[in-house]
Specification:
Elements lengths: L1 H6 L2 H38 L4 H13 L3 H11 L9 H27 L2 H9 L4 H31 L11 H11 L4 H29 L2
Helix pairs in contact: 2-3, 2-5, 2-8, 3-5, 4-5, 5-7, 6-7, 7-9, 8-9
């Protein structure tokens, strides 16, 4: 118990909270951008545009079958070789957006396919264009059905930020590693507290999703 008390000094907690803020910051930006990318790619896949949809599907399948860690390495070490200079935060966001965007692409496509064809036919029969029918009728229904899958993917994204410790992103896990590297007796207390912090963040995310699900039910 004494070890836990010492490990949870205000200085260490404050240091962990700084890491937690980076985790939340990277997660929120990545969630928004990956959702936009996934929605865009999912629509392209659904519409089956000649050649374009096939190429997008091929690229998405490649990305989905690559380890996220490999994509993080590429964005941090590979992009500078192409003249694109990045820092750990930017590289982490790019990697997460690419990887999660590919995952969300298939969720979006499956969600749209699950909407009965009669919804599109009914909208078109009322004078809507294809784009209007998708925007006002099909996509809203698809998004409502996709909430559980989207939530699961977003929670995974939050946890995946910990992989960016490999490129020295100053997020929660990295800050915890700095603390217990200075005193190995703090190892267990640090893992306990970061587990609690991750749980709180993911639980809040799930509550937001539940609220949105009930509001648009």
């Amino acid at each position: 118990m004494e070890t836990f008390i010492h490990a949870y000094s205000w200085i260490d907690i404050h240091f962990l909270l700084r890491g937690l803020w980076v985790t939340i910051y990277v997660s929120l930006i990545s969630i928004v951008l990956s959702f936009i990318l996934g929605l865009f790619l999912g629509l392209i896949r659904y519409m089956k545009i000649k050649y374009v949809s096939a190429i997008v599907g091929f690229i998405v399948d490649i990305i989905r079958n690559l380890p996220l860690l490999l994509i993080i390495f590429f964005t941090y070490f590979g992009l500078p070789q192409m003249g694109i200079v990045t820092n750990p935060t930017t590289a982490s966001i790019i990697a997460l957006v690419i990887f999660e965007g590919a995952m969300l692409c298939e969720i979006v496509r499956s969600g749209i396919i699950a909407v009965p064809d009669g919804q599109m036919e009914g909208a078109r029969s009322n004078g809507m264009t294809f784009g209007q029918a998708m925007y006002h009728v099909v996509v809203p229904q698809a998004l409502h059905n996709m909430i559980p899958a989207l939530l699961s993917q977003f929670v995974s994204l939050v946890k995946d930020t910990s992989l960016a410790t490999i490129i020295v992103l100053p997020e929660l896990l990295y800050h915890a590693q700095i603390i217990y590297s200075q005193n190995t007796t703090y190892l267990i207390p640090m893992y306990v507290i970061i587990a609690v912090m991750y749980f709180i963040v993911c639980f809040c995310l799930s509550q937001v999703a539940n609220y949105l699900s009930k509001r648009y039910d």
